[in-house]
Amino acid sequence: MEQFVSLLKPMKDRIDGLMSQLDINGKLHRVEFLETEASTPDFWNNPDQARQINQEMARLKDEVNRWQTLADRINDALELASLDDTSLQDELALEINDLSNHVDRFALQALLSGPYDREDAIFAVHAGAGGTDSQDWALMLERMYLRWADQNGYKVELVERSEGEEAGIKSAMYSIRGEYAYGYLQSEAGVHRLVRLSPFDAAHRRHTSFTKVEIWPDIQGQIDVEINEKDLRIDTYRASGAGGQNVQKNDNAIRITYLPLNLVVQCQNERSQKQNRERAMQILKARLFEFERRKQQEQLAELKGENVDAGWGNQIRSYVLHPYQLVKDHRTEHETGNTGAVLDGRLNEFMDAYLRTKV
Questions:
Q1: Is residue 26 a part of any domain in this protein?
Q2: 169, 129: one domain
Q3: What mean pLDDT do residues 70-86 have?
Q4: What's this model's pTM, rounded to 2 decimal places?
């Protein structure tokens, strides 16, 4: 049984270290404080604040319970291993294997400790220069991310979609809902490059296409961003995509342009013009919030003398389908020759590699 103890002790040390790094004890104290606040007689006098407190309390409780449960399982396994009861060997072997997988997964989630990593995400894809090839590439990326979301249990909601003239799409925007959606998808923001024999070229020559992917945290609740109505241009149009007959027959879709930055947000998925406008404004606030946050990060990096990400113009990943098969991330050097699996949604290994570079 000593071999089991030698496997479990490093797991315990690793989890204890991660719990200290994430201040799990501090979060437990925060839960206790919020529970006291929630028990006061005037707690619901401010419903918005009460809902925010309950949401924070539920999120922290879930996080604390998950880490404490894993730590307790490791301690229980250590206690059993120390009994030196050989009849427990098979049971312990299975438990240690399962615990090892959990520890690895929790260690990865510990990297997702940013203030918005647990939030839902707003995902957008935009075809770049290259005409029909780029619009078809945007469609391929849209499918790739929708498959990834489905495989990982995320809920997807269409916000806006614009079809290409001949094939593919010009752009598409989705809300990706689920725990750590933004934390994982943040690795995908940037320009994605495709090299292949073009199906739209009569001579079947090799073409290079570019598509831009944008990601923002879909922050729930009030976003502290002030917008002057004079800085907005609001247009209505008739949606061409999904949304039901009401959307098809009326100019319910909304396009909001934030003039100072020329940011454009469109929403066509809701049933009414009012709902589309409210959702578009929420997304605009999220974009402006993320814009300011990234600008501050870049300014801080410049002061520290660090390399600053040039933003959306960076080519973050190449997908080569001819003359060889390769997907390579240029930030992490992670690569695979199984291009079909990647384009079918197997992105976790690329996301994991990106998260580990942030440590």
A1: yes
A2: yes
A3: 91
A4: 0.72
